[in-house]
Amino acid sequence: MIRTRFAPSPTGSMHIGSLRTAAYAYALAKHSGGQFLLRIEDTDQKREVKGSTEKIYSVLQKFQLIWDEEPVIQSHRLEIYQTAAKRLIQSGHAVSENGAVRLKIPPGETISFHDFILDHDVSWKSQDVPPAILLKSDGFPTYHLAMPVDDHDMGITHIIRSVEWLPSTPIHVLVFKNLGFDLPAIGHPSAILDPGGGKLSKRKGNVSVEQFLDDGYLPEALLNFVVLQGWAPKDNRELFTLAEFVKYFDPSGFQKSNPVMNFDKLNWFNGHYIRQKTDTELTQLVKAFVKSDISDTQITQIVSLIKDRLVKLSDFEKLASPFISPSVDIDSQLFTSSAKRSLASIASVLETTTSSKPDELNAEFKKEIERLNIKTGDYFMDMRVAIMGSKFTPPITESTLIIGIPESLQRVKNALGQLG
Asked: Given this model, what pLDDT does residue 46 score?
């Protein structure tokens, strides 16, 4: 049975690349009915950020990447690592120096392993491998010791980890071997690159999973996007739920070239998943981004008209602003040459109408268009500019009813006054 793990360090917000690693490990295990485990690598106490472990749990749960057993916490296993270090000293594979334990590198050897993601053998000459510290003088292990010990104890069969760990792999191969442990299959996905060049990093902007969520990206969209950054199915399909990703996951789909973070593509995914939501579902999702004092009913009404324009949940406030407050200054150049006649007619309809349905109200406007012999496009263009402050709006009749007849009438009168 395949057993994989996700092993983050609680040193801050989760990197989007770490989310990808977790998703790959989850899919690799679940595709074959295996198990996905979680380990918190918290032995670097100086770098640990308070509350990060709980945030790791929360983020994984939001993406439904649920682990199968109790998480392994490295700081709770110090005696186990210390015992392993003693075994290495006793067998002559490590040496104690000033309270720390250092790995001894055998001379004249070739150290190799098969990377199942890169799908080729990787090797090093032992003289090129540094004698790494395994146990620090404070009794805490380094990653080089804790990782092999934990993966053995947890029964891990496949390791998927960031490509930045590839240069350290010969150290880990030696530790596995010297402790008498079977070496799991190890794979390193390609690195996600920044559009401006180089590796995607915190120094270059937003790479935090939590920040993407706070900016209004849906978990299902972000997950769908990130799993395709370095992996592709045989049929090149793009849309995957988590269950579908697990079903169709194939390690042969890993790509050798480094993907470049494509924010336009991420926005496309997010817009797609937003439009799959019902108006009621979307109302609940955008509420966290609404600063204006409007009711759920108003939000739902507005959502129904602007859903196709939403790229992120955080866009709602800006797109909804014409419904909530009128434009103070309307650009007069946006009006057509027949604006005065159109707006006077629109005001007349709004003063007398009893219609509460878009079709009924629209019929009244069309009668006026025929009477005035004005172009339909010009008539409704002037109406959009006067009521919504823009030439490009959601359906204007429906928008008028959501804003309310009295408020819409007042906006039209204000526009007429501005035109003189």
From this structure: 87
Does the domain at 326-419 match CATH 3.40.50.300? Answer given as: no
pTM beyond 0.85: the answer is yes
At residue 349 the predicted structure's pLDDT band, cuts being 50, 70 and 90, is: very high
- 202 annotated ligand binder: yes
**Quick one: average pLDDT of 109-120?**
95
Q: Does domain 202-277 have CATH number 1.20.1530.20?
A: no
Domain boundaries, the chain: 3-187, 202-277, 278-323, 326-419
* Band (29; pLDDT cuts 50, 70, 90): very high
pLDDT single digits (tens) 125-172: 999 999 899 999 999 999 999 999 999 999 999 999 999 999 999 999
Nearest-CA neighbor of 350 among 301, 297, 393, 411?
Answer: 411
Q: CATH assignment of 278-323?
A: 1.10.8
> What pLDDT digit, counting tens, does each position of 267-291 carry?
999 999 999 999 999 999 999 999 8
Identify the pLDDT of residue 203. Answer: 57
- Tell me, what's the pLDDT at 140? 96
SS3 letters across the chain:
CCEEEECCCCCCCCEHHHHHHHHHHHHHHHHCCCEEEEEECCCCCCCCCCCHHHHHHHHHHHCCCCCCCCCEEHHHCHHHHHHHHHHHHHCCCEEEECCEEEECCCCCCEEEEEECCCCEEEEEEHHHCCCCEEECCCCCECHHHHHHHHHHHCCCCEEECCHHHHHHHHHHHHHHHHCCCCCCEEECCCCCECCCCCECCHHHCCCEHHHHHHCCCCHHHHHHHHHCCCECCCCCCCCCCHHHHHHHCCHHHECCCCCECCHHHHHHHHHHHHHCCCHHHHHHHHHHHCCCCCCHHHHHHHHHHHHHHCCCHHHHHHHHHHHHCCCCCCCHHHCCCCHHHHHHHHHHHHHHCCCCCHHHHHHHHHHHHHHHCCCHHHHHHHHHHHHHCCCCCCCHHHHHHHHCHHHHHHHHHHHHHHHC
Q: Does domain 3-187 have CATH number 3.40.50.360?
A: no
Out of 35-39, 137-141, 233-237, least confident range: 233-237
